Amino acid sequence: MNPDLEKLLDLQEKDMTLLEVDQRLDEVLQEEQALDEAVVAAEASIGVAQRAVAEAVRRRIEVEGRVETYRKLQEGRRKRIEVSRPGKETSQLMAELDLARQVLAREESDWFRAQEAVQAQEARVADAEAQVEALIAEQVEPREALASRKTELEAERATALAARDESAEAVAKPLRSRYERLRGSRAPVAVVALTGDACGACYTAVPMNRRSQMRMSGMVDSCEGCGVMLYYLEVSTA
Ligand SMILES: [Zn+2]
Fold first, then answer.
1. What is the dihedral of CA 228, 231, 235, 236, to 10 degrees?
2. How many alpha carbons fall within 13 Å on the CB side of residue 69?
3. So what's the pLDDT on residue 157?
4. Which domain holds residue 124?
5. What residues are neighbours of ligand 1 (ion), with CB under 5 Å?
């Protein structure tokens, strides 16, 4: 095999190794992201429950205000009854007092309901907080495993990158820049062997004269169909 082509194929092989390490590293990062997202989602439910508490408290304060107002009015009526002369005025005040007592009782039971709602929502906040805490605790081990896998893969990546760069140095400049351009713009496989009389990547037929040129020179040519660098691969007859 032409030594230039051999070096080019060696570079491509190293690049595929690097790509494979990158994919595994990417999987680890995605797994970490999934753990983060689970925590964010659980924390969001704390926020929802907290807003419900705030709303329940606002409602309770509203009812408290009304209860207070009715109590003061009742207090006023009682005082007026104390100083009124028995008669028409007093009985009218007594009737008002009775009526208002029922209203007040309704408002007070409203207040108890509002108070129960606050407590229920507070319990939801506590539940949601406990769930987040449990989730974070559950994630400790998987996160440690991911972190150590990441460290390993990063070391593996550094080795693969160094090997790749070393191979790249050995490839002739014009060939190398052609290869890098192809890799940068399209599929990771830039150098492809002919398959029979066609491109091994897109199966576009390659004219015989170009095929025999590739075979004789041992050098690469571009595929007219997909643009990859094509080469002739000697089929072993052994
Ligand atoms: Zn092609």
1. -120
2. 8
3. 97
4. 3-170
5. 199, 201-202, 204, 223, 225-226
